[in-house]
Automatic annotation (TrEMBL):
Protein name: Energy-coupling factor transport system ATP-binding protein
Signal peptide: none
Subcellular location: Cell membrane
Coiled-coil spans in chain: none
Alphabetical list of InterPro entries matching this protein: AAA+_ATPase, ABC_transporter-like_ATP-bd, ABC_transporter-like_CS, ABC_transpr_CbiO/EcfA_su, ECF_ABC_transporter_ATP-bd, P-loop_NTPase
Similarity-based family: Belongs to the ABC transporter superfamily.
GO cellular component: ATP-binding cassette (ABC) transporter complex
Pfam short name (any one): ABC_tran
Family matches, as CDD domains: ABC_cobalt_CbiO_domain1 (cd03225)
Membrane topology reported for the UniProt record: Peripheral membrane protein
Length: 476
């Protein structure tokens, strides 16, 4: 008989300054060895629910909790600060939020020190978890030099080095390339079978998981559970491709751009053009230089060589908080002064931010923060917009709206360069695809041809989008 790990009875949660609860009357039980996904629209309280399960809330906030929460059969409030984390490990949606030390090895050692693991035992545990997560080569690497996907793998290693009974995952695939995501799921399945780990994951892209989960808890916008039952395999979103508005005039010219930091070449010289109204997807393995390219184009990284014309481009980073300057979401969208009141109101509505317009940009969910950043760039009258993983943390309706917004701006001659691992979104939105591997540009390919070239995609850790034949037909 498997023991109860988490038991919630009529649990609600809100912050003192909020009028409405984030979670409303939540009840469920998760048992030892279960594989459960928590699904629902962006901002419905999924991550908040995880934070109650690991005692981050209300331990580290002023949140108000009602109802009964039991962890391993004991009332949650009887656990001392940090005590439950010996048994429950968490991988957060934004891996940067949980790193304290400069290198991978030091971060793992710091985690073990907090658990008071004897120093003589640390070496073997660090070595074993690095081998398990295939990160041995990165042992002495500075974490902040890694890509978002590699950081996610390091964060997972830090969770597993604790030898927890439960692993909480907040959108663990959002920054992983398709092949690495597939391998991550297979690896998790093996881990579950080997040690009986209980796994609870918040996820939007459930189609990627196949039949991994045995149960799904679904939530609605009000923070209530609307369904709790056996997991059923999901089909991916299939977008209807729109007619292209690509013009012959170049909107962005990149000539021999390279990036070298501290004698390490992150990006070798590359050149390409993006036309007015063109959507260019940049794809490749984790750590290949995709985000480095975007940062070099907008001036965040100093270019070691080459030129970019024009210099003024809009940029939506993986961590959208870096953009925020105002105290409300509405003011953030109005900041540039280029968009009219009606245009800002339309963006708030279409990005599902209307009800949050007076909220502080830092106070909303990760997916909502990303939409705030996207809205700010769309309101800023930029002719070229760079987006780094814009689909991460978005539910189906928000993805569809983002797709439509990009299409509308393309008709106005605005160009987009989009780094994404979402092959279905890429296949529907892209006119062309730039492939990058090991800091080198393989080439710029017509989207009408690349989705049929499975070997080329596989060599860049990519998988053909589901429905690739339909996407190819859409270009005909």
């Amino acid at each position: 008989m498997h023991k109860d790990v988490f038991t919630l009875r009529d649990v609600s949660f809100r912050f003192p300054e909020d009028d409405k609860e984030i979670l409303n009357g939540v009840s469920f039980t998760i048992r030892e060895g279960d594989r459960v996904t928590i699904s629902g629209p962006s901002g419905c309280g999924k991550s908040t629910l995880l934070y109650l399960l690991n005692r981050l809330y209300p331990e580290n906030c002023d949140g108000i909790v009602t109802g009964d929460i039991r962890l391993f059969g004991k009332k949650s409030e009887v656990y001392a600060p940090g005590e439950i984390n010996h048994q429950v490990a968490t991988v957060f949606q934004d891996p940067d939020s949980q790193f304290c030390m400069p290198t991978v090895e030091e971060e793992l050692a710091f985690t073990l020190e907090n658990l008071q693991v004897p120093r003589i035992e640390m070496e073997s545990r660090i070595r074993d978890v690095l081998e398990l997560t295939r990160l041995s080569a990165l042992r002495h690497t500075v974490i902040q030099s890694l890509s978002g996907g590699m950081k996610q793998r390091v964060a997972t290693a830090c969770a597993l080095v604790m030898k927890p009974e439960v692993l909480l995952l907040d959108e663990p695939l959002s920054h992983l390339d398709p092949l690495t995501a597939q391998q991550f799921i297979t690896w998790l399945e093996g881990l579950h079978k080997e040690v009986g780990l209980t796994i609870v994951a918040v996820e939007h892209r459930l189609d990627l998981w196949g039949s991994f989960f045995d149960r799904e808890i679904s939530m609605d916008h009000s923070g209530r559970i609307i369904a709790d039952g056996p997991f059923r395999r999901k089909t991916p979103i299939f977008y209807t491709r729109r007619a292209s508005a690509v013009e012959t005039e170049p909107a962005l010219s990149v000539d021999a751009v390279s990036v070298k930091i501290k004698n390490e070449t992150l990006l070798f010289p590359l050149s390409f053009q993006a036309k007015r109204g063109e959507v260019v997807v940049i794809a490749g393995p984790n750590g290949s230089g995709k985000s480095t390219l975007l940062k070099s184009l907008c001036g965040i990284y100093k270019r070691s060589s080459g030129t970019v014309e024009p210099e003024r481009v809009g940029y939506v980073p993986q961590s959208p908080e870096f953009l925020f300057l105002e105290k409300t979401i509405e003011k953030e969208l109005r900041y540039s002064g280029f968009a009219s009141s009606s245009e800002v109101e339309s963006l708030l509505h279409r990005l599902a931010l209307e009800h949050l317009k007076d909220a502080h940009p830092f106070s909303v969910s990760h997916g909502q923060k990303r939409r705030v950043a996207i809205g700010a760039m769309l309101a800023d009258n930029r002719k070229v917009i760079l987006m780094d993983e814009p689909t991460s943390g978005q539910d189906a309706s928000c993805l569809q709206e983002l797709f439509e917004l990009i299409h509308e701006r393309v008709q106005e001659g605005i160009s987009f360069l989009i780094v994404t691992h979402d092959m279905e979104f890429a296949a529907a939105a892209a006119n062309s695809v730039i492939l990058i591997k090991d800091g080198r540009m393989t080439g710029k390919f017509a989207a009408s041809e690349i989705w049929q070239d499975a070997p080329l995609l596989a060599s860049h850790q990519l998988l053909p989008p589901k429905g690739a034949d339909q996407h190819a037909a859409a270009f005909a």
